[in-house]
Specification:
The protein is an alpha/beta fold. 49% of the residues lie in helices and 8% in strands. The chain has helices spanning 3-11, 17-20, 33-42, 48-59, 66-73, 78-96, 135-149, 166-178, 202-210, 225-231, 241-245, 247-253, 270-288, 308-311, 318-331, 345-351, 369-372, 392-401, 411-414, 419-428, 430-450, 453-473, 478-489; strands spanning 99-107, 153-157, 181-182, 187-188, 192-196, 216-217, 259-262, 294-296, 336-339, 358-360, 405-407. The strands form two sheets. An eight-stranded parallel barrel has the order 1-2-5-6-7-8-9-10, surrounded by five helices. It has a two-stranded antiparallel sheet with strand order 3-4. Helix 18 packs across helix 22 (453-473). The longest helix has 21 residues, at 430-450.
């Protein structure tokens, strides 16, 4: 692409009409800075009865108001904080049972026209190796993830660049889905392609929807407008705060009803971020009829030749990070909570009982890194440095030992349980029952196809407990479920309810 063509591409990225249509008549949006600052300044520590009333609302799987969330932030009493932690775990179990959904990130390009201060892939960083994978390389990466590791779900990540524009994203999604390679007993294939990419127009998102796009993630990074402007230089695409803020509205209009929000914690005051994100949740519920399916919690991490990570005055301590997860679980009780391998193994263990529902494993955030081999991770290829380099087998063995079943299930999406349908099922607890059955089936698949003997032994013990639970608690469905389980044992794959 010529320089002129590239400049034209950049100019065409933002469609002003697809921002203004979602704003209030006075031109304002739903992130009310003054109201958030008022809540932070004026909210007093609540009495125990009020705290328990708010907890009860979360346990009923009802979205908390900003005022209620602000009150929980003010709780200092150790006993009440422990009640909040216990409630977060209880909410997660009510909605999602003991499942942990796993996935891997797949970075397809390190070229980006943006210049975000905190990002290793920023356009001004000369220390990063720049490339965009060919479709042959995308296939090789997918074969490693699906055929060697056994992943069934990916989050595919793209830089914002002409070489990884709409046509490239669409073709890469189709390429990932096309991979079907032999495994030990069954087949290795990706059944769900989620995408983390730049905000797009409605027309562009319709194209991706037709390609089988799963969840569409766009993280605001920070909801603090002043900090946002400091982090994302003016004149770049990402410098437009509201183009990013309205991304989920356009996704919904394009038919993508499974969306993920997130904040990069460490760019601004985490309390402001949580309250602003809660305003975004309420806006999605108002406009779309449903809130976000997932919330992500990336924490600012070091990157090659990127000193900002260590200099930020808003870095989040481990203790505060735990509070953030607890508060988010209570504030948006139906949402899946994603903690990635940015965090250390120890930190992920600490967060697991607090309501986390998804974790990646065997992750590599370098472009082209999976086909090269996990041992070749290089900072020069990566957006940031990982905290948990463990393989999928080791992670699954640990989770199983802690009583968590790893789910590779993608059935709900393919059965149409998305959008309002899945939200209603999540609020009622019904989706958890469906997903528990499918989690067992996919877990057995993975154990037979990919697990080491050590992990297989731990996993089979957990499976015996899970099968007994289904037999006791769902006697009407047990015969059909047992028949499907036996078919999985015999080598059939991708059976689901």
């Amino acid at each position: 692409m010529t320089v002129v063509a590239s400049q034209h591409w950049v100019r065409e990225r933002i469609v002003p009409a697809e921002i203004g249509k979602y704003l209030d008549p006075d031109g304002s949006d739903w992130v009310n800075d003054a109201e958030i600052l008022r809540l932070l300044a004026e909210t007093e520590e609540p009495d125990p009865a009020r705290v328990r009333d708010i907890i009860a609302k979360a346990l009923a799987v009802e979205t908390l108001s900003q005022e209620e969330l602000a009150r929980l932030m003010r709780v200092r009493d150790p006993g009440l904080r422990e009640e909040m932690r216990a409630a977060a775990g209880a909410v997660k179990h009510k909605v999602y049972d003991n499942r942990i959904v796993t996935f891997a990130p797949l970075y397809l390009g390190s070229k980006c026209v943006n210049n975000c201060v905190y990002c290793g892939l920023r356009s001004s960083n000369p220390a990063v190796e720049r490339r965009v994978l060919t479709m042959a390389e995308v296939r090789a990466e997918t074969e490693a993830l699906a055929g060697q590791l056994g992943h069934k779900r990916l989050i595919v990540v793209y830089g914002e660049h002409p070489e990884s524009g709409l046509d490239y994203i669409a073709e890469s999604i189709r390429t990932v889905y096309s991979v079907n390679v032999p495994a030990r007993k069954g087949r290795g294939q990706i059944r769900r392609v989620n995408v983390n990419a730049a905000p797009m127009s409605i027309a562009e998102l319709k194209v991706l929807h037709d390609c089988g796009l799963g969840t569409f993630q766009v993280f605001q990074e920070t909801y603090d407008r002043r900090r946002y402007a400091q982090m994302h230089p003016a004149g770049t695409i990402k410098g437009d705060f509201r183009w990013r803020l309205t991304a989920m509205h356009r996704a919904q209009e394009a038919g993508i009803d499974d969306n993920g929000l997130g904040v990069l914690y460490g760019l601004a005051d985490w309390r402001f971020e949580l309250l602003a994100q809660q305003a975004h949740v309420h806006e999605m519920e108002r406009f779309c009829g449903i809130g976000p399916h997932t919330l992500s919690f990336p924490r600012l991490e070091p990157a090659v030749n990127t000193p900002f990570a260590g200099a930020s005055p808003w870095r989040v301590s481990d203790a505060d990070f735990e509070r953030i997860v607890v508060l988010a679980r209570l504030a948006v009780p139906y949402a899946g909570l994603i903690i990635t391998a940015r965090e250390t193994p120890e930190m992920r263990r600490r967060l697991l009982p607090l309501g986390v529902t998804q974790m990646d494993a065997a992750s590599n955030v370098g472009v082209g890194a999976y086909a090269d081999g996990q041992e070749k991770q290089k900072g020069e290829r990566q957006q940031f440095l990982l905290g948990d380099p463990r393989g999928l087998d080791e992670c699954i063995r640990e989770w199983a030992g802690l009583g968590c079943i790893t789910s590779f299930c993608t059935a709900g999406y393919r059965c149409g349980r998305t959008g309002k349908c899945i939200m209603d099922l999540l609020r009622s607890g019904a989706e958890g029952r469906f997903c528990k059955l499918n989690a067992i089936l996919t877990f057995k698949e993975w154990l037979d196809d990919f697990a080491t003997p050590e992990t297989q032994a731990v996993g089979e013990e957990l499976l015996r407990q899970e099968l007994d639970e289904v037999r006791r608690t769902q006697p009407k469905i047990w015969p059909a479920f047992e028949a499907n389980y036996r078919r999985i044992v015999a080598g059939e794959r991708d059976l689901f309810f």
